[in-house]
Write a structure and sequence with these properties.
mainly beta, twelve-stranded antiparallel beta barrel, 11% helix, disordered N terminus
């Protein structure tokens, strides 16, 4: 996986949201908190900085050629998070811990050195630490497809990746098993990485999301989301897969059928250590500041998150 993907996925796992004085606003923000947790599933894919295989197939049999095109990955991981404002409230902030377990499977196809197509399915279980928040524990199932075009320029110094993806997520209450939310998300992005030094890689990107939500019990508005991401990956120890990634994300969320726009700043620092090909550990520290045009929906939050990830490729 390319380093610019690691920065984008770091920025993707940063926020979650809830609670307000009016009951309707409180319920809406509870649901938005769950939607903001779903990108954490995308963080689980694989290791960082892996070397890509060549695409020479001359003299190979059909099985060898097929194995060059198709690949499969099984993955499982655990997440532990501590935050001073677990539901992103504007007032009465509540500190809590959160634990999540992920399991997933991917089938990827690389048609050429530029084009790739991936299919992924992930199951995740989210638990809150405090007993009075246990009713908000939930389970999510996510299916995702992505087509990406990747090209390098300037003697392989600049990497440009253009992904298009869609995904469907279904959420269930963990205690009752009741379906609480369906979400369709469509994404287009432009991602750039500049490999100017072996130990120093800046990356930047723009992402657009359209999210269409539905719930059997609540009104859940869809939204347009724009992300601007900037990050730098430092590799301080040559020959070791240890990465230090400071980054910042600016997001604008525009809700549909609701007069609400959220503007969100999220600086973050990530440390990733991959001692083995199939094992990685991540520590992520973030500060999020969100300003909303809807009453009782702005918030500030500090969070520290730890991931332990296992992934097996075929």
């Amino acid at each position: 996986m390319r380093i610019h993907v690691s920065i984008l996925l770091t920025l993707a796992v940063l926020t979650h949201g809830l609670h307000a004085a009016p009951k309707a606003t409180r319920r809406s923000n509870i649901i938005q908190s769950r939607l903001r947790l779903l990108p954490r599933v995308n963080f689980q894919r694989s290791g960082l900085g892996e070397e890509e295989a060549g695409t020479i197939t001359a003299g190979m049999g059909w099985y060898e050629k097929l194995s060059r095109i198709l690949s499969m990955q099984f993955r499982t991981s655990s997440m532990f998070s501590v935050t001073d404002n677990v539901f992103n409230t504007q007032s009465d902030a509540q500190s809590d811990t959160q634990y999540a377990q992920f399991a997933g499977l991917s089938l990827d196809a690389e048609f050429s050195e530029h084009w790739a197509f991936s299919n992924t399915f992930d199951e995740s279980w989210f638990y809150y630490g405090r007993a009075d928040n246990a009713s908000e524990d939930f389970v999510s199932s996510t299916f995702r497809q992505m087509l990406s075009y990747d090209r390098v320029f300037f003697d392989k110094k600049l990497d440009v990746n253009l992904p298009l993806s869609w995904e469907f997520s279904r959420l269930f209450n963990r205690a009752t098993g009741a379906r609480t939310l369906d979400s369709h998300t469509y994404r287009a992005a432009a991602e750039f990485s500049w490999f100017c030094r072996p130990w120093f890689t800046p990356a930047w990107s723009y992402e657009y999301f359209y999210q269409d939500n539905g719930s059997p019990t609540d009104f859940v508005p869809g939204k347009h989301k724009h992300n601007l991401n900037l990050g730098v990956t430092f590799t301080p120890f040559k020959g070791h897969k240890f990465y230090l990634i400071p980054s910042v994300q600016y997001s604008v969320e525009q809700f549909i059928h609701v007069v609400r726009t959220d503007r969100i700043w999220t600086p973050a620092v990530t440390m990733t250590w991959q001692p083995f090909k199939c094992l990685a550990f991540d520590v992520i520290g973030t500060y999020t500041r969100s300003a909303s045009t809807q009453d009782d929906s702005s918030y500030k939050v500090f969070s520290t998150t730890i991931f332990a990830r296992l992934f097996f490729d075929w």
